[in-house]
Amino acid sequence: MARLIGDDGIGETVNRDGRVLFAAKALRTFFFGGLSVVLALYLARRGLVTTQIGAVFTATMVEDALLTILLSALASRLGPGRIMTLAAPLMTLGGVILAVAEDPRLLIAGAVVGTLSPNGQEAGPFSPLEQAILPETVPAAARTRTFGWYNVFGFLPAALGSLAAGAWLRCARLAGLDDVAAYRFMLWAYALAGAALALLYASLSKGAKNPRRHAGHAPLDVLGLHRSRGVVLRLAALQGLDALAGGFIMQSLLAYWFHVRFGVGPELLGPLFFGTNLLSALSFLAASRVADRVGLLNTMVFTHLPSNVLLLAVPLMPSFRSAALVLLARHVLSQMDVPTRQAYAMILVAPEERPAAAGVTASARALAQSCAPLLSGLAMTAAATGLPFFLAGGLKIVYDLALYARFRSVPLRGES
Q1: Taking Cα atoms as reference points, which of 267, 113, 109 lies closest to residue 194?
Q2: 16-45 and 89-100 are packed helices; what angle lies between their axes, rounded to 10 degrees?
């Protein structure tokens, strides 16, 4: 048994399956983060124009969302470990097709079916299915802390992957490789990562690979749910609204807004976004302590609400310094809802419904985010104004209030 990292986890343990899931999360997100840095550049060098690249990214996110719904429903019947072992080679397939294909149609097909991540964040069915297994790898009292560390193990490797991609490209140029050859090397590495991921999932115990069977429950429906179907669909719809709002304040749009509004360049924006990302990672861990005292739903709502008020205030600041400070303050709170909403969804439903519940909610978020390339482009035309912030903050506040109103009286399994 291995202790959870840090003071939050003293006295709590993660079993071997949990360690495998943490390792898989770190491996996968490292390569997602690295490949996201060069994916658009590679496609452009291979002949795709900007509109085609945007359409490919949207199609990739839609395909990932639909695939996640399908595989999550199958996981409720066949077991999440088995499904993840079968899905991991899609990364290998996508990497190989992109590395060797010459026809633009094959490049597009490889990007769409290859479980790629245009934004460096999670993609495919892996995270929802891991979340379904994770509660069984630790004592009940450690669940929220475990989800906090689970997100750290995705967030930091993704950031390191982006740094590694930049370092590799600099080294490749010094060695005389052209950019396309350097990008292809990264795609081959991504393909190998998919194979390694499949081996990790294959090493999970039988308990993680087999579906949960509980006597006396109604048969699972086509989504892999039974009596929790209605509440999961309502939760998924609300989370889709939150994800849609987030599309207006993607990091690239924020960088553009700061540049247009205050005339600042990468030398100031780099440290700013390093700070926001670091504070977001720390907030994952703080969330568990807050949830232990006030509960999961209260933590989700009452940390998210003030963060969105701060988001609305950013464009009202008169200087870069003040706007940056408000944005940093916002990130102290803005990610506390991530591990708590994951833990909340898993406690909300019966164990045999967890893969489907995680898949449906994650897919709703992904489908909503797939609108971001189009909507963000519209918001970009007004980026020098506060419109992106007002749209994002306003929709997120609506999400918070609706979430609390709908779920404050819904009982949770095993939470007093």
Answers
A1: 113
A2: 20
Q: How far apart are CA 150 and CA 21, in angstroms?
A: 9
Instruction: Give the domain ranges of the chain.
Output: 1-211, 217-411
Of the candidates 221, 207, 257, which has an alpha carbon nearest to the alpha carbon of residue 356?
Answer: 221
Q: pTM of the full predicted structure?
A: 0.76
Q: How crowded is the C-beta side of 402, counted as CA atoms within 13 Å?
A: 15
Residue 188, judged by CB atoms within 10 A of its CB (0-12, 13-18, 19+), counts as middle
Q: What is the pLDDT of residues 239-273, one digit of tens each?
A: 889 988 887 777 666 777 887 788 887 667 767 87
Strand partners, 14: 2
For the chain, the farthest-separated pair of C-alpha atoms sits apart, in whole angstroms, at 66
For residue range 163-211, list pLDDT tens digits in order: 788 788 888 888 888 888 988 999 999 999 999 999 999 998 887 767 6
Q: Could you write out the three-class secondary structure of the chain? A: CEECCCHHHCCCEECHHHHHHHHHHHHHHHHHHHHHHHHHHHHHHCCCCHHHHHHHHHHHHHHHHHHHHHHHHHHHHHCHHHHHHHHCHHHHHHHHHHHHCCCHHHHHHHHHHCCCCCCCCCCCCHHHHHHHHHHHHCCHHHHHHHHHHHHHHHHHHHHHHHHHHHHHHHHHHHCCCCHHHHHHHHHHHHHHHHHHHHHHHHCCCHHHHCCCCCCCCCCCCCCCCCCCHHHHHHHHHHHHHHHHHHHHHCHHHHHHHHHHHHCCCHHHHHHHHHHHHHHHHHHHHHHHHHHHHHCHHHHHHHHHHHHHHHHHHHHHCCCHHHHHHHHHHHHHHCCCHHHHHHHHHHHHCCHHHHHHHHHHHHHHHHHHHCCHHHHHHHHHCCCCCCHHHHHHHHHHHHHHHHHHHHHCCCCCCCCC
Altogether, the residues listed in the chain come to a count of 416
Tokens of 275: 């700070």
Question: Which numeric CATH code is attached to 217-411?
Answer: 1.20.1250.20
For residues 18-31, b (16+ Cβ closer than 10 Å) or e, as one string? Answer: bebbbebbbbbbbb
- Fold equal for 1-211 and 217-411: yes
As a whole number, the mean pLDDT across the chain is 81
Classify domain 1-211 at the CATH topology level. Answer: Growth Hormone; Chain: A; (1.20.1250)
Residues 6+ apart with CB under 8 A from 215: none
